[in-house]
Write a structure and sequence with these properties.
Elements lengths: L1 H13 L7 H4 L9 H7 L2 H31 L4 H12 L9 H16 L1 H14 L4 H13 L1 H17 L1
Helix pairs in contact: 1-5, 4-7, 4-9, 8-9
């Protein structure tokens, strides 16, 4: 729950997810593999499925980000101010310079964002499974892409090809 809380807040604050994995998988990454092992474990078919899922996950993330920003604004906080308060809350050594009203608004936002967790996770899982991958395989490919330059190039080629054909 803590990991997801950090991840969902990061999503709302930065607006960027790396491969859509951040929301559901950052703290659950498989043990490190060597580049050679990773590359041989990921087939072109799996990478192609991952690319399709990646695009759809990114689209769903954009929708979720808009909802999250709306929640923040509906509570009467600016995104930048929410970010400042959140950063200070995440750092035990930092002191938060916020009024009690701002802190209450911040708490309400965090509660609302946390309540979105089950629906977001199920949507992401459904997207990934609709592309013929398990969540574990999706995470494995995402991790391999972070570590393997050759696989990154292959992924980029698949993405370019899918964009020109789509």
């Amino acid at each position: 729950m803590i990991t997801f809380k950090k991840d969902i807040i990061a999503l709302a604050l930065t607006g960027a997810l790396i491969g859509g994995v951040t929301m559901t998988a950052n703290a659950q990454v498989a043990p490190t593999q060597t580049t050679a092992q990773t590359q041989t474990n990921i087939t072109t078919a799996e990478l192609t499925k991952f690319a399709g899922a990646f695009v759809d996950v990114q689209e769903e993330n954009k929708v979720a980000q808009q909802q999250m920003m709306g929640i923040i604004q509906d509570q009467g906080l600016e995104l930048e101010r929410f970010n400042e308060i959140q950063k200070s809350k995440m750092n035990p050594e930092a002191t938060v310079d916020a009024s009690s009203e701002e802190l209450e608004k911040h708490k309400a936002v965090v509660t609302a964002l946390e309540s979105m967790q089950p629906e977001l996770e199920s949507k992401m899982m459904a997207i990934i499974e609709d592309h013929g991958l398990t969540m574990d395989k999706y995470k494995e490919v995402a991790l391999a892409l972070q570590k393997d330059k050759a696989l990154q190039q292959k992924f980029q080629q698949i993405m370019i090809k899918s964009q020109t054909q789509g």
